[in-house]
Amino acid sequence: MLEFCQWLDQTAVGSTIRQSLWLFPAIETVHLLGMAALVGTITLLDLRLLGWVTPERRVSQMAARLLPWAWLGFGVQVVTGVLLFSSEAVKIYGNPAFRLKMLFLLLAGVQALIFQTVVSRKLPAWDERPSLPVIAKVMGMVSILLWIAIVTAGRFIGFV
Q1: 153, 7, 139, 5: which is closest to 63 by C-alpha?
Q2: All structural domains of the chain with their residue ranges
Q3: pLDDT of 48-89, one tens digit each?
Q4: Can you tell me the distance from the alpha carbon of 43 to that of 156, in angstroms, rounded to the nearest whole number?
Q5: Which segments of the chain have a pLDDT < 50?
Q6: Cα 59 to Cα 29, 79, 89, 126, distances in angstroms
Q7: 17-26: Cβ within 8 A, 24+ apart
Q8: Are 141 and 73 in contact (CB under 8 A)?
Q9: Nearest Cα to Cα of residue 66 among 107, 38, 47
């Protein structure tokens, strides 16, 4: 993996971003906007799953409205994250905060996969229930905790 990071560090994209005065901060700004879209929409849905906000709104309706924005934010995160990583791949590769962020991202991906393939099928049935089942609350809480961990680890990357 280190060899890949060394290669990535030396690519034209990585070198250009690293040597530019304004490119890294511009990409990082877009990365933060993508994070706001992703984490903001996911958090709203998670809070609804926990029953803490908008109990009058149907869970399936909220998911249908919010998840496309979450996927857009995720796409922005992936593209900008790869660009940022390419500019400092060797340096960041060994960073414990970066590794922790990647671990939490993997766990969030597994959680999202479970939600999309198993739990989301049950959302319409939950719309008619007076309170959501425990699995909804667990999924919401796990998701919120994972995204807090991801954002926190991401912030620590530059300081470790």
Answers
A1: 139
A2: 2-159
A3: 999 999 888 999 999 999 999 999 999 999 999 999 999 999
A4: 21
A5: none
A6: 31, 30, 40, 7
A7: 17/83, 17/84, 17/86, 17/87, 18/87, 18/88, 24/84, 24/87
A8: no
A9: 38
CA–CA separation, 5 vs 90, rounded Å? 5
Spatial distance between the Cα atoms of 124 and 58, rounded to a whole number of angstroms: 8
Distance, CA of 151 to CA of 82 (rounded, Å): 16
Q: Scan for tokens 């060394």, then name that residue.
A: 6
What whole-number distance in Å separates Cα of residue 51 and Cα of residue 141? 11
Predicted structure pTM score: 0.90
Q: Which two tokens stand for residue 111?
A: 């959680």
